[in-house]
Design brief:
The complex is a heterodimer of chains A (140) and B (837). Chain A is α/β, with parallel strands linked by helices. Chain A has one domain: OB fold (Dihydrolipoamide Acetyltransferase, E2P) (Beta Barrel), CATH 2.40.50.140. Chain A is elongated, with a radius of gyration of 21 Å. Among the domains of chain B are: 199 residues; 107 residues, no CATH class. Classes of the chains: A alpha/beta (140), B alpha+beta (837). The interface between A and B is large, with 60 and 71 residues.
Amino acid sequence: MKKSHIAALLVIGALIAYIIGTSANYSTYESFATANSNAGKEFQVVGVLAEGKEMHYNPEEDANRFTFYMIDENNETRKVVYFGAKPTDFERSEKIVLTGKMQGEEFHATKILLKCPSKYIEDQLDEKGYYSPKTAASVN
Amino acid sequence: MEKALDIQYIGEWLLAGNLGHLFTLISMVAALFAAIGFYKAVTTESINQNESQSWQRMARIGFYFHAFSVIAIIFILFFLILNHRFEYKYVWQHSSRSLPVYYMISCFWEGQEGSFLLWQFWTAFLGLILIRVAKTWENRVMSVVSLLQIFLAAMLIGVYFFGYKIGSSPFVLMRDDMINSPIFMRANYLEFVTDGRGLNPLLQNYWMVIHPPTLFLGFALTVVPFAYVLAALWKRNFDNWVKPTLVWSLITGGVLGVGILMGGAWAYEALSFGGFWAWDPVENASLVPWIVLIGGIHTLLAYKHTGHALRATATMLILSFMLILYSTFLTRSGILGDSSVHSFTDLGMSGQLLVFMLVFLFLSVGLLVHGWKAMPAPAKEETTDSREFWMFVGSLVLLLVSALITLDTSWPVVNKIFGTKITITEPIAHYNRYTVWFALVVALLSATIQYLRYKKTGTSGLIKKIVAPTLVALALTMIIGFALQITHFAYGLLLFATLYTICANTNYLFAALSGKIRVAGGSIAHIGFGILILGALISAGKQEIISLNTAGIDYGEAFNEQNKRENILLYKDRPIQMGPYWVTYIGDSVVPPNTLYKVLYEKKVNEEDKPTEVFTLYPNAQVNPNMGLIANPDTRHYLTKDIFTHVSSVADKSKDKEEEQLKEIELAPGDTAITSGSFVVLKSINPNPSAVNYVPATGDIAASAQLEIIDVKGKKYTAEPIYYIRNSTENTVIAEVEEMNMTIKFEKILPEKGKIKLAIIERNRPVDFIILKAIIFPFINLLWLGCLIMTFGFIISVVHRYQQGRTRKSKSNEIVTEISEGGASVQPVTAFRDKEG
């Protein structure tokens, strides 16, 4: 390795260090509990939709507000407020990844990532030859 | 399953599947045979020429068999899809009867098996070309290519080997795969399985017909430069190596680049995230090998002209292919699960993929060690004002940004290994934050370096030459920056850098190369790169969401930042102002399988004004039984901007049942009744009514109520329900007020009160609305233009580099001079390491 190359590497390395050091977008997958004890800090929380609990989206009232309850991986249930349109296949989601922060007792999400069941389960056909994913059966 | 074994199934086409499966096995065995043959041809080369040649012949035949098998597999699979043979799982999973034939080809890349098949096909195709053109490199290069084919073929065999399933065959039967489904207890199950699950609607887009094959050709091509590097390391000799490697690298760079950008075009047209690039792990995984390859091409050029940087070149070209394998691992092992929306389904092949990757890693590292010393590295260091030095630095910058992107893409892998839970919350903002700086450096370098010369240069000339383009770029930066109000510091700098690279490269093209297109591939590609980044910068940086919901409810300050309110509610026929437009949702129409939502845009300031421009967009949505509602945007294209519109949600009309409200009222002429949504005034009673559905008859006692109905907005409607007695029975003729969805019945005359009795039925009409998001992307056409120019640059370079060798061949022993990279002057090229032909 030559002197000049080392110098160039150093400069670029310093640049990277600066960028990463000032980068605020790294976070960790956490639970509601962690998000709650670090109110105001942004986290990603993984969980499932709390079935049977109220889910509210009335676009005529506000097209950018959707609330529901989610159970995180520690079995804690929280109300979630999402500021956007309700994702269309929301009820069918098998897993939800939220990005956002705690605000009082509610989790305010700015982003929702859904996992659709059709991709992640064993395919099955019912007696009439129709496609019947396993999760759909377990919901009933 | 034992029970099912005895069943004689009816109507299955088993021959095609068995044949297909047989060909997957043949393709693998033939690839193995070819690999061994080419390897033996290499090892016997120096001992016995004849033996080597016969090995080579056998290897070639093996490879021909392999290529034939791959094509046969594709034909059989296509045949099954075309005939809707839903007894095959792949066919059932990825196609349906309603799928148009031109999308059937897309079935090949929806599933893992099909996309491996596509990759294998392209590599086989390239192998056939290499057998014809690689000459002395053939045996070594083809050994590597055949080895790759063994692994790719293994992905399709679906055979159990010591209890471990290798590969996943596209010819698996449904009944073998879904053994728990009760339907397979019936011998005639095929009579029930009448349709397949169908192709993902997002893939039913014309870009999806051409993007995957192009991208996979790019993927397949990366093995060629890689194989050339390994071949030379193996041989420990780099003579006559530069030309084929350079030509193949340039072809790879061009095709892979186009493939990636086509993916961006598809994402922009078909996906509703609003943009052409989301820094999704799947996107990154294909971008990074390309960036590294571009670095490798530049160090290869430096090596060609100066003898420097061969080791860097070898490393980068190897790395580029290894990153393709790594990206294959990332997208197909299911490891990206949480972080990417469009990775493939996990087929339980991660172990196999890992072995695939590690074999090539060990092979590359081993050969690098083996041939390291054989790679010439001049003792004398490059001078800091030479072209080769800065090309090296530029490549290093590319390598570093690749490393950063790879690291950020690999967090799921890190999490898996170390049990951490690191994630990136805002990927787009995060990646943009640092790639902006790298793009800036690369843009500056890609222009300035052109003015430097290989070997020694003075810098005095440089300043003079770049003064003019720098000034022009500065002026343009001021104008554009001011016009578009670019206030972000880094974006402002990047704006200058891209304009500078466009100006300086254009200047170089005309001033230094005197407009000789033939040798200007590099400059043109750089101009294209500059325009591309400029387009990305302006369209993404200055995009404007015009569907901001200003009429929303105020949640207080705490929410303002988060609540961007990017979606707006549009009731049917009710215009709403959005940016410079008044937008109206007109209605929907169904064009199976899509529902089109007709949205009218009128450019005007006030609602009453006459619009200066009118157009209609049809964002559509497809209700898919497996994926819910899938929105497809519609975009109005202008030369200088795009208006991008998609529905985020629609009214569920089936749920909205009509609610009825019945009200009975008694009125005297002149009275007014108040209903929930209107005033009803009884103007007078008409004793001689007549109507379409009431024909007076003798003996009738009849009367009609002349009513005026006023809605909440003060709009007036009239209605005249009739009451009559015929043959001593009461009859009524009801009146409908269509506009208000109201029905009025004249029930009775109450002579003692001087009043009449009316029954008013009001119904809430199911509200029809859509939730819309609309974004203006300014100057996004620059992005596509830049892409085209860059591709054009690659094509020119490929042609030039290819011809360079050929003209040289014709004047083999002469001392060759060339103008191409010599900068402003004609520069003799020392052929000491570059003995082409």
